[in-house]
Specification:
Layout lengths: L2 H32 L7 H20 L5 H4 L6 H6 L6 H13 L8 H15 L5 H13 L9 H12 L15 H4 L1 H11 L3 H14 L3 H11 L2 H14 L41 E3 L2 H7 L7 E3 L1 H10 L6 E2 L23 E5 L2 H4 L7 E4 H7 L9 E2 L1
Antiparallel strand pairs: 1-2, 1-3, 4-5, 4-6
Organism: Culex pipiens (House mosquito)
Protein name: Protein unc-79 homolog
């Protein structure tokens, strides 16, 4: 046994022991909160949870393959899990779930606890097995029922940018929708029920429409079986994004009034961004090593403003960046294709594919029947559309 290999074994054993010790601390926090004893502060719990986030990111940084790419293919789950050291990831997930169940008993520091919890849920995603990945969107959404309103935007951002893109895009056996997809109506209901901000509702729904088909069915499910508050918001959004469902809408040539003007742009996540907090993210980098290098406290992927993306690309010219879709500016009743030649310009679909959105300033685009068929005929790649 070489000296370097022996050192690696010792380090792995030390990290495993520390991981277990911190897990015991989380379970002790849960016991204290459950028994209504002098409860630990949210700050104390947050500091322990932050340890796990940093440990997970450190482990992830040493993984040669791209976890965010292979996580989309369930058939590669064994390969993905085999690339990590043997730590108690499932027990950590269970401990976080248990703490969320009793979070309402935290007397002070609930916001700090919530931020640390959301960060850790984003970090732990690549380390989870199939069943826990399927449960993660609902668990993240359920935090909105106990965390303060000041964190509702953070919850929506974690769902839209870190959780949903890597969970509901997974295909189950026989090319059926995964369990995470089947829980989307419950996710929508939770957000619509506990957040009074229409901007959160729009952001969640547009993110879902970008990632999966038939979101209208999930919305109809909320209308049919949801709580009164969630049903009301779901009905409004149904007629907003699918105006053809409204029989009283006669003006087919104008624009519908915007549902909300309070959308908060998702900003650049690079720590040393020169315009930190103000520059809207327009590019995304899925390279986990680059992500952790430039945002040491955030889970991958890395969302960047154009200035930071260009700067990083100069240092890493082989790096590929994806485009981020911007929110819909309005729901047009007529086709938004500038070269539309149809005699009937009534819009019947919304396309969220990057290719089509590139013709509309990276915003989703509304098409009439003719433009929709021309754009998405059999000779082109299928895109995410809403009809």
């Amino acid at each position: 046994m070489t000296g370097s290999f022996r050192v690696q074994l010792v380090n792995m054993g030390t990290r495993g022991a520390a991981f277990q010790a911190k897990l015991r601390s989380l379970h002790e926090y849960h016991r204290l909160l459950s028994n209504q004893m002098p409860a630990p502060s949210g700050s104390d719990i947050a500091n322990t949870i932050k340890y796990f986030s940093q440990t997970l990111l450190t482990v992830l940084k040493d993984v040669p393959c791209s976890p965010l790419e292979i996580i989309k293919d369930p058939s590669l789950d064994q390969v993905r899990m085999a690339s990590y050291p043997n730590l108690e990831y499932q027990n950590l997930y269970n401990a976080l779930t248990m703490l969320l169940d009793v979070a309402s008993n935290i007397q002070n520091g609930l916001s700090l606890f919530g931020k640390a919890l959301l960060q850790c849920l984003g970090c732990i995603l690549p380390f989870l097995d199939k069943d826990l990945i399927d449960n993660l969107p609902y668990l993240t959404a359920s935090s909105i029922s106990v965390l303060p309103a000041s964190l509702h935007q953070d919850i929506i951002n974690y769902l839209c940018y870190y959780i949903l893109p890597f969970t509901i895009t997974r295909q189950s056996d026989e090319d059926q929708e995964c369990h995470a997809c089947q829980s989307i109506s419950a996710v929508i209901m939770l957000v619509f029920q506990y957040s009074n901000n229409p901007a959160h509702h729009c952001q969640l729904l547009e993110s879902l429409m970008r990632l999966k088909h038939n979101v209208v069915k999930d919305l109809l499910c909320v209308i049919a079986y949801g709580t009164s508050g969630s049903r009301a918001s779901a009905a409004k959004l149904l007629f907003y994004y699918w105006p053809a469902f409204d029989p009283n809408l006669f003006d087919r040539k104008g624009l519908l009034c915007k549902f909300t003007n309070n959308l908060v742009p998702f900003v650049c996540q690079r720590e040393s961004c020169p315009n930190a907090g103000n520059a809207e993210a327009v590019k995304v980098c899925y390279d986990h090593c680059i992500s952790i290098l430039y945002a040491v406290d955030s889970p991958p992927p890395l969302y960047l403003c154009i200035e930071c993306a260009n700067e990083i690309h100069r240092d890493h010219p082989d790096l590929l960046f994806g485009d981020i879709l911007h929110p819909m500016q309005q729901v047009s009743m007529i086709c938004e294709n500038k070269n539309c030649r149809s005699t009937d310009k009534s819009a019947i679909s919304i396309c969220f594919s990057n290719e089509c959105a590139s013709y509309n300033g990276n915003h989703p685009i509304r098409y009439c029947t003719q433009c929709h068929n021309n754009r998405h005929n059999s000779r082109r790649l299928p895109s995410n559309t809403l009809c």
